[in-house]
Amino acid sequence: MIAAAALAAPAIAAGAPHPAPQTTVNAIEAEVMCPICGTLLELAESPQAKREKVFVAKLVAEGKSKAEVKDALVAQYGPSVLALPKASGFDLSAYLVPILALAIAVVVLAFSVRRWRRSGRANEPSAQDAAASAPQGEDAERLEADLSRYDL
Amino acid sequence: MSARSLLAFLAVLAVIGLLAFGLLSKGETKIAVGDPVPDKVLPALPGPGQGSIAKYRGSWVLVNLWASWCVPCRQEAPVLQRFYERNRQNETTVLGINVQDNEDDARAFLREHPTGYPQLRSVGDERSAAFGSTGVPENFLVEPDGDLALIWRGPVDDQFLRERVAPLIKGS
């Protein structure tokens, strides 16, 4: 009993045990912004960024998951803290341009395939063309003789 | 016009339209002297409760946007406190709005630099955008009717308050 109490003493003295971290400070800092600097937090060294890093480190040490840390950052600093463009104003083009480009690419591809198939059909030799282009007379005999030499 | 030309034309048109839309909608909030002050009900700092600029309608309000990490804000806080104490009897107040910050740091700042004037907190920092803020500190003098009388995007000192702000209040 005394031994058990002795073992428990340091834990009690240290207060509540720290939960195991679910993510790392580096992982968060690579995915969120310093809103004032307009750069990724991991690249920012401004006074605001330094305080934001302290805030992130505190939450990570408390055992918060990456999603929980990001939610807390948004609650404190606003949605611009996420490294995602806003879905309004000029930043909206970051979402619209890829969709527009994809739609244009699909249409261009569909037109190209149709044209390619049509031209492929137009260039296909007819039976008459095949007959006309087949070797005639002496050439036909020589071709026959050559081919027969390779017959097994 | 061939189908290919039509497609190219539409694609170019779409890109131009998108850019034009972006440029037109990009404009950050512009506020000018004479405009109504941007206002919103915000949580009080350190709390509890909430407040807004409109609550002080009928008084002059010097709105101060600040953040705990901002060194000039630290130097400005006692200046604003002195201005508040000198003018509080003249239907004039100072209203601090904490922006670009986290709440723990903001509270720590106020413990270190206690102010007698009211403080609000812009959660999620949307007040910076509303004021067209480019940094902190920034100061906005609001007339008793809620219009902006002065916009000062930088720290204030005693001389500035005496020479630029006080005459506006006294001249009303």
Task: Give an account of the 3D structure.
The complex is a heterodimer of chains A (152) and B (172). By secondary structure, chain A is mainly alpha-helical. Chain A has 2 domains: 11-84, Helicase, Ruva Protein, domain 3; 87-122. Chain A is built from 7 helices and 2 strands; from the N terminus they run ααββααααα. Chain A has helices spanning 2-13, 25-29, 47-61, 66-77, 93-123, 127-133, 137-149; strands at residues 33-34, 39-40. Chain A has a two-stranded antiparallel sheet with strand order 1-2. Chain B has 172 residues and is of the alpha/beta class. Chain B folds into 2 domains: 1-30; 31-170, Glutaredoxin (3-Layer(aba) Sandwich). Chain B contains 5 helices and 7 strands. In chain B, strands 5-4-3-6-7 form a 5-stranded mixed β-sheet, covered by helices on one side. Chain B has a two-stranded antiparallel ribbon with strand order 1-2. The longest helix of chain B is centred in the first third of the chain and has 24 residues, at 3-26. Chain B is elongated, with a radius of gyration of 21 Å. Chain B starts with a helix and ends with a helix. The mean pLDDT of chain B is 90.
Question: Could you outline the blueprint of secondary structure elements for this entry?
Answer:
The complex is a heterodimer of chains A (152) and B (172).
Chain A: H1 2-13, H2 25-29, E1 33-34, E2 39-40, H3 47-61, H4 66-77, H5 93-123, H6 127-133, H7 137-149
Antiparallel strand pairs in A: 1-2
Chain B: H1 3-26, E1 42-43, E2 50-51, E3 60-66, H2 71-87, E4 92-98, H3 103-112, E5 119-121, H4 126-130, E6 138-142, E7 148-152, H5 158-170
Parallel strand pairs in B: 3-4, 4-5
Antiparallel strand pairs in B: 1-2, 3-6, 6-7
